[in-house]
Amino acid sequence: MALQRQRGVTGDVAGGVEFLLSKRNQYGGYMSTQDTVVALQALLTVGSGSAASDLDVSVEIGGTTVGTAHFDQTSSEITYILDISGHLGPVTMVNLTSSGGGSIVYQVVLGQFIPWDEFVQPPCVLCFDVTFSDTSVTVGERLSASVTLTYDGEAPQLKMVLVTVKSGAGLAFDSEALDAMVRNETVANGTISLYELGVNSVVFYVENVNKGETIIFDVVLVGSTPFTGTIEGCQAQDLYDPGVATVVQPVQMSVTR
User: In terms of residue numbers, what domain contains 184?
Assistant: First the structure.
């Protein structure tokens, strides 16, 4: 935003815009809410300098309106998501029309899902795996998820890697064991600076992941609720380059009484 007010730096500004656009996730945002707000403000400043003040936007497919949204000063920084998967054909033309004042930033994202048994994993830059010590436990029984992480990219080190371990609905994380991991700080060849507990998940912030060194640590879980289903979404991701990421295959888990 500061560069936009200067002369003779058009190329730098264009490069910054290209970088911001390339780093958006599939929901149009960035790593955190604050990152998303600041990035969208910058894009609006460069694009038109006018945020949406009283703007109605319609999304049309084949001449039919499939969604509308209203933007004003109270909602101009909210991200709206519209699923148009039910309207897709071999070729689909999506039209956006607007009336009112201001402008918005939008993107169209196509997601395609491949069955795991047909998926060929490309050579990994951030090699990651999670192995559960057992896939059939009883309520109250403990098990572990062994995490293995190796970086093999061009840089000598990744400053921060986010490691997400999922538990499914039938397992719970041992919070005392998690606290002990952070207090001890170091794991094999790495440092866990903090963790965040979410719904059926925990995210570890792993610092200073050196190229070629393997980081290994165990996450303790306990059977909490009878459950039979899939644990999916375990992944490792470079905090500063979300494109450097690896997701592991789902695991079938059973928790009985």
Answer: 121-256
CA distance 203 to 148: 14
Spatial separation of the C-alpha atoms in residues 114 and 145, rounded to whole Å? 25
Query: Do 97 and 192 belong together in one domain?
Result: no
CA distance 118 to 143: 30
pTM above 0.90, yes or no: no
Count Cβ neighbours within 10 Å for each residue of 63-95 and write b for 16 or more, e otherwise.
Answer: eeeebebebeeeebeeeeeeeeeeeeeeeeeee
User: In this predicted model, what pLDDT tens digit does every residue of 129-183 receive, in sequence order?
Assistant: 999 999 999 999 999 999 999 999 999 999 999 999 999 899 999 999 998 888 7
User: 112: buried, middle or exposed (CB in 10 Å: 19+, 13-18, 0-12)?
Assistant: exposed
2-30 pLDDT per residue, tens: 554 555 555 566 677 777 776 766 566 67
CA distance 37 to 242: 18
Pick from 112, 136, 165: which residue ends a domain?
112
The 10 Å Cβ neighbour count of residue 135 is 12
Helix or strand holding residue 15 (H, E): helix 10-22
In angstroms, how far is CA 238 from the centroid of its own chain?
10
Pair (72, 198) in one structural domain: no
